[in-house]
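Rotation project, supervised by the postdoc (A.L.). Task for the rotation student: set up a whole-complex structure prediction and record inputs and outputs verbatim in this book. Inputs entered:
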Amino acid sequence: MNALDVAEAAVAAAPTGDALARVIHERSLLLRFAANRPTQATAIDDVTVELAVVVDGHLGRAATNDTGSEALRACAGRALSAAEAAAATASSGEHPGFPAVQPARPHHGHDAETAALDPAVGGAALATTFETAERHELEAHGVWTVAEDEHAVATSAGGGTFESTTDALMKVICIAPSGRSGYASSMGVAASSLEPGPLAERAAAKALVPGDAAELPPGDYPVVMEPRAVGSLLELLGDTALNGLAYAEGRGALVDRLGQQVAAPAVNLADSPYFGSTLPRAFDAEGTAKRPLPLIQDGVARAVAHDLRSGALAGEASTGHALEPGGAADGPLPANLVLAGGGAASFDELCTPVERGVYVTRFWYENVVRPKETLITAVTRDGTFLIEDGRVTRPLRNLRLTDSVLGILSRVEDLSASQQLTSHGEFYDRRFAYGVVSPALRARSVRFTDAAG
Amino acid sequence: MAAAAARAEYADARFVSTQSERLSTRNGSVDQVDSYDSEGIGVRVRVGGSWGFAAARGTAKADAEAALERALAIAAAQPPSRGAALTVEEPATGSYSSPAERDPFGVTLEEKLAVLEEADAGLRTEPQVSLTLARFQAVRVHKLFASTEGALCEQVLTECGGGLSAIAVSGDETHVRSFPTLHGGHMEQAGYERFLALDLAGNAPRVSAEAAALLRAPNCPSGPTTLILSGEQLGVQLHESVGHAVELDRVLGWEASYAGTSFVRADALGSLRFGSEHVNVTADATHPGGLGSYRWDDEGVEGHTVPIVREGVLTGFLSSRETAAEVGLDRSGGCMRAEGFARQPIVRMTNVSLEPGDAGTLADLIADTESGLLIDTNRSWSIDDRRLNFQFEGEAGWEIENGELTRLVRNPSYGGVTPQFWAGCDAVCSSSEWRLHALLDCGKGEPGQMMHVSHGAAPARFRNVEVGVA
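Outputs recorded:
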């Protein structure tokens, strides 16, 4: 049975009510390495069947990884009992239920060669990376990973939808004997796009930038951020500003600000599920078809992301951003963010107008401090440099950033023409690969509050 | 295991069955009634020093054999490794169940929802509180472990707990107060009795009133001061700046790809000054109720106690059979854990706790403090990839003047550098104030693994800490 067959069988097992089943079949392989040697290798073949049932506006959910008919009946029974227990309370049920699902629109998100999950391809990538690092007298750390996911949704209202996707990610951190490190990553639909040799060279080049690490006192500095650093900020913007549940509950950063200027005119941000370099996704966890959603246009806030529940609370339709059937406890999020590129031909060109500033490769331990202000904190990592008189001159000790994401976006002066798909590649729970497509950018000032590391 | 023994230097297999339940209310309405069951087998092999791990759902012999073949193929496909031989450990045999007086999965949904509804009603007592949340959670994990060294053991671990939060909103100000903790609530290895003992309904009105009061409170003043951390915030501080820093895989650089490394060096045992003489930290996998407690870890090493810091000096690491051997230790720290069957075990914290001191109660410690700040309940946290520079924000702070709590202040934040911060510790409250504090969202590893852990702590005082509003 493929994932859609299982989803339809699960819905059929629901004895009554308004039911939705989502099925994810993950096949993945992830090779980790550290100090030029393999350290861990994980292969997963698992299925998650999630059943959501609505009774009188009350939601009950159950999940299992057993696709046998008896297990599906038991899972459906638990979901129904949960919904009935909720409906028996004095509280009012407000869930709108699950409409019929339409078949998915085709996309380019599957690569048959990648779906083979060939460990020999990964082993060769590691060998190439180790050879590159050793040639530069560096240690290479990182991961190479590929996956194929089958994803299906069916509802008792009718219809079902299915897609099969692949994803591939490689990241390399090269560490010099001095402790200085450099990072580079590559992500896409196909493993053949990862190019481990050039990737390792890029990471090595950062670790080998000459000079002693300078230290900057806390303060506001002009900053050039690479795409992974920009991607981190945009993911946090998703949590704090673009989450439709937080918006509907009056906690979101865009409450009363839709239609207003919230970022520099150069900032154009959308959720674009079919964009060329994203990991395409045709529908969300509730089977709602995905389509492009402009979020910030020319710096003006236009929309937030909704699932069925948050949309009902806000009086709007779902935009196709449910993370779980019935809605995740923390609300919906955009999973295909794309920030439009600008006019700079290269990252170096972005540095040109900067007299004295900071070059950031990526951030680490990003966390929200005050969500309504989009205030976050994070530290720089694996490639922080001083920009002097328009060019990168020397390494810089890592810094702690504490600033508002919308504030930083309002200070954007220019963006690179080229964009890159990036991700932390964390893969918690059942694999759901996603990333942010973004250019590098230059911001007039960013607040750094401390030295780090 | 017989099939694996001839083809690998070492192999182990874990069958893991996980059952979980989450219930919650939101603004008085039932929000979540979720349950999740899974089971499967994870097979780990070591060939030529390289690891291969494969996981597959199901319990049939054919599933296990297929996972073994996949694990062997993956190990063989990688470049050769130079891994050290594993430490020699007694093969684990026997069975164990963690204590639970009342099975949380045997209690009706209706009864559990009624407790949450009562607590949620207690939160909706302040007009400026616009979002209220009450939560229940239970997890049961059943594990069978076998290895090519002859280990064969079984354990069942049951966790239960809950919590509540009130969020007050006015204009651009948003403030949250939680009990006992913001991050998913408090759990212990125990039964339903532990959830009831939290007395969520009894604490709800105070939590709501404090959330509303924060809207009217002034911002936390800035500058160096004397800081008292409540036990819960101290648990987070321990977790981030001590627990992660002494994980031996990080110390060896093996987590540089994701979680980062450590400022602690492998040769620093017995010489690194981690803090003042008041700082005594112990990693204990045997503490009753702790979420980092077990009879055996996920490579069959019996759970035990490891002194991590004694009188401010580093004395131990959190380790596995491989990492311990790598630095020449005789024994593993017994710290290998995996999230479910589909993840490879990695070095995780057991219950990493600050031993109680002799400063009496929290009231005694406040009375002994001329001027300073008390911060309660973690709201935001961040630390660099070497576990040195950190910045934490609490939900609420109170100024201390002449030995008394005075003004409530909002957005209290503090930062520092790990060894200097712990060097400033000059008092730890006594054992009467010592509690286990749960942390339910410790992320580590690739693919990512989320782990539950507890940290024991009594409130403690730190001198010359930079505080303010982030």
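Student's summary: The longest strand of chain B covers residues 29-47.
Supervisor addendum: The radius of gyration of chain B is 23 Å.
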